[in-house]
Amino acid sequence: MLGQKRAMADRFVQAVRSGDWLDRSRLLGYAAILGAFEIGLLLFWILGAHDNLDPTGKPLGTDFISFWSASRLALDGTPTLPYNPEAHAALQASVVGGAEIGYFGFFYQPVFLLICLPLALLPYALSLLTWLVATGSAYAAAIGRLLPRLAPLELAACATFPAILLNIGHGQNGFLSAALFGLGFVLLDKRPWLAGALLGCLVFKPQLAVILPFALAFSGRWPAFIATAASATLLSLASWGLFGTETWATFLSGLLLAQATGAPVVVGHDRVGAGHLLLNLHPKVDLVIADDGLQHRRLARDVEIAVVHYRGFGNGWLLPAGPLRDPPSRLQSVDAVVFHDQLDTPRPPVRVYTPFFAMRTAPGAVYSLKATTMRATLAELVDEQQRTAMRVIAAAGIGMPDRFFGMLRAAGLQFEALPLADHYPFTDNPFAGRAYDLVLVTEKDAVKCRANPVLASDGRICVVPLAATLDDGLIDLVVSRLPARTVSVAPAPSPVA
Which pTM does this prediction carry? Predict the structure, then answer.
């Protein structure tokens, strides 16, 4: 009995391995079943969509909202803003009526921004449909050239490949990439110059832009190699000519934290979700710093640092009766307390039971919002004002604008103070109707000013960055904690690597 079962099992395994059972009729039948399921799923997705949201509450086309929003920002004359997470995320939220959708970053160089540029000429849903039809048609043409002997019914079976449904659901550029790649290699022998031109368009995929020239060179396909290099170069120059040096510089360096630290940055209301996105995009990251993370209880943490402002805790009450999100006793459980000192203001009378350190901030070189390479120190602005009676407005849409104004007064500037609401959006122009020669804003506000074409093009608006100085002991404390926590979880790596 046991021998019979074993023999049957062996015959089954042999049949599966040989593939003889998987004839044309079965292949088409399985493809039909899969296709019916996929069509039903697509209909469910389409019929359940509302306000540009799919039935799960995500943007219709998910990743496509990043492409469309990047196009909208570029068409509005602000091509640097797709690389500004705050402005990019704000536009995405407006596409879905303010729904909480997280953030879909634009991680492509300006060459892909050039490809995306026409998308926002159409409303979002129509643009998504047009994008999928256009790139899908190119993909179908490539499959037809790659597999010319297949009958129409067999080509239809190819359309049930699950990755196609995934590309449609995410509104991604997989159709475009596959079409360029497939057509390029189909034409490689007969029309090498055209093939190279198509392959060069894949420059928006950096991993392919690096590998393809080597593959062509090693195989001795020099006409295609030259055409690939020329095509990629022309597209890059076209994006530079259209969007400018600043857009490329912003892509390469990032803004604010990314620019200051060189570290990858992700923005999101859901700190856990933002952390997962960061690690998916940058799997080699082994240290994550979360701003404003104490009250995000779901967020795991190895080191907790609480920053105490020089004004202290106000009335000591929690929201909404007071300014605190956690009681002062919470300081007993953190790893370090940092006092943000300001202009020799006395340190608040706060009792702490953990190591405490100081942080001081000072203004850096002021730079033009329109042309970031134009810079001057506050001292130079003071001298200019004394010579020319320059009219200055200082505007701040932050929680404590007096801090910003006090810093400017301490430098010797005379100005009209314009305090704005915290998180002021700058969708309108708060300086309209005011007489001024210069406007000074914070870096936080500058991000939103760039999203307003009127403000972004005003050469009189300048940004005052802040540079923070921390006690060395705080850095030493954090560094000392991390190896201990790491070693306790996993064995130390081998010295030979």
Answer: 0.56
